[in-house]
Structures are given as C-alpha cells and as structure tokens.
Amino acid sequence: MFIGIDHGTTALRFASETKEFRISREKATGFTIADLERICPTEEIEGIAVCYSMGDAITDITDIRKVKNRGIVTREGAGKHTGGGTRVYDEIKASGIPAVVMPGIHRDSPTDPRFKAYSHQTSPEKLGIAYEAMQALGETFIVADAGSNTVSLLVTDRAITGAFDACVFAPGTTHGALDVDAIRRIDRGEETANEAFLHAGVRHTVPEDLQEATLALWVAMEIASLRLLAPEAPVAIAGSQAPAIAAEVSRLITIPVTVFDEWAAARGCARIARDVFAGGARSVLGLKVKR
C-alpha cells in the first residue's frame, strides 16, 4: 500500500488510491504513525510521499532521510503556522517507513526560466494534484487549485513548465496578492506582510454575493494566461471551491473543465509513491527522484 500526504491550508489529508482521511492542522499536532491504520495496517505500507510547507529548499523528490530542515528554507513567511504539519513530517521520518519528500517549485526548479521572475511558483502538494490530473487529461494540461488560495500549473509533455503561486495572481477565499491598500497597511505598521496575505482573499475584499463570481473570473484569467504557452491544453480545477466555480470558469474560457475533489493532491502523491517505490521511477513531472 502506498500513501500520499497533502499538507493543505486548513487540514492534512492522507490517501491511498482507494481510501482517505483528513485531520485539521490543529489536531494534527497529536498525530502518531498509528493514525495511518485508518487506511491500512502500518506494516503493509510500502512507501509514502509527504508534502511539507513550501518545499523551497529542495528541487528533487528526495528520500526523507536525506532532507535537511524538512525541505524548507525557513518557517517564516507567507502562510499559516500551527505545528501540525511538522508533527506529521517528524512522525513519518521517525517511523522508518520508506518515504520521499515532495519539493516545491521555485527559482532553482527546472521550469521555464521566465516563470522565475518570482521566487516561488507552487508548494509541493500541487504536484500531487498535477499527477492525479495527468491520469485523466494526458501529457499536456493546466490545473488550477482553488480554495483558501489559488495556484495554477502548466504541465507540458509530462513535465512542469511553470506555475503561479497564491501570492502572485488570482486570489483564493482567504489568501491573495498584496495590493496598494495592503502595502499601505503594512507600511503604517497595522499588519505584517503575512497578515495582509491572509486577508487578501475574496472573503475579505468583495461582498459575499460577488465572491464566487470574482473567484471564477480570476481563476479563469490565470488559466487563460497559461494557455498562451499551450493553446490546446485541456483544463482541470481542483480544491474546495472547484464545484462552485467550474461552470463559470468553463463559460469564461469557452472550453470544458474537469473537476477534481479535495483528495486529488493526496491521491496523486500516493500514485507518486507507488511509481517511485514499486515502479523505480527516476523522474516524475520532470523532477528527479533522489533516493
């Protein structure tokens, strides 16, 4: 049995290709390896692919025993910090179960260099979504993950070409790019930059009756911009907001949109674990596997 772990904004999701469960990030501070028995007995686990935070200190899919500082440059910066993801990572590492750590996509990653105008493109769990989407959409496609934040990726010929991180383009429900008002609040000392990021989503910036339509518009624009590089690419949306906005996004970009549920990242990571540990994969989505 192979397991993928999605370190999401509000929860950690654990999945094999057939079973899954979730734990809020706050409750995950009490996680033990025995919790994985909700999927299967621990002695039956053959490999795990785990995501942790931004994954910005590694560029390869790497054996957990070879990763320093859990694969991140620092815990400081954009995002919510609770300790749940740290607990899960450390328990997996201490268990002795074979595991790899998924990298984020950033300036050192093997993507189109034009995307490196920004330091960070996507956190590791989005690679799980992309791997899951590839099973349905083929070797070239675009997938947007719309929830607390919005991140969109372009995969070309089975390799990550580039992505837009949550603080660069389309807002999510909670997070978004920092606009002029946010910069002024920061300069006045009313908020930190991270607090402003956590208050830049549509729930904080537009009336309730416009939130879904606003999110759909920005997600559609993010997808449309990636289609400049792959005009025929099929499109998928994942994340908690996908069912609510998919029809409007499809109308705006004038092509069908495939919808994936909240388990796509964890299931995709489980597929990656299977292909690494059982299939001997040496690269996944254009990223090297270092074991």
General description of the model:
- This protein is 29% helix and 22% strand.
- By secondary structure, the protein is an alpha/beta fold.
- The longest helix is centred in the last third of the chain and has 16 residues, at 211-226.
- The strands form three sheets. It has an eight-stranded mixed sheet, sandwiched between helices. Strands 11-10-9-12-13 form a five-stranded mixed sheet, with helices on both faces.
- The protein has helices spanning 84-95, 125-137, 180-187, 193-198, 202-205, 211-226, 242-253, 264-277; strands spanning 2-7, 11-15, 20-24, 47-50, 61-63, 99-101, 105-106, 120-122, 141-146, 150-156, 159-164, 235-238, 257-259, 283-284, 287-290.
- Strand 9 (141-146) and strand 10 (150-156) form a beta hairpin.
- Helix 6 packs across helix 7 (242-253).
- The protein starts with a strand and ends with a strand.
- The chain has one domain: Nucleotidyltransferase, domain 5 (2-Layer Sandwich).
- It has eight helices and 15 strands.
Uncertain ranges = none
Round the Cα radius of gyration to an integer and report it.
18 Å
Beta-strand residue percentage: 15-25%
Number of domains: 1
- The appropriate CATH architecture is 2-Layer Sandwich
Report strand order across the widest sheet. Answer: 3-2-1-4-6-5-15-14
Helical segment count: 8
Would you list the SSEs in sequence order as H and E? EEEEEHEEEHEEEHHHHEHEHEE
Q: Helix proportion of residues, in percent?
A: 25-40%
Protein name: UPF0285 protein OU421_09210
Family: Belongs to the UPF0285 family.
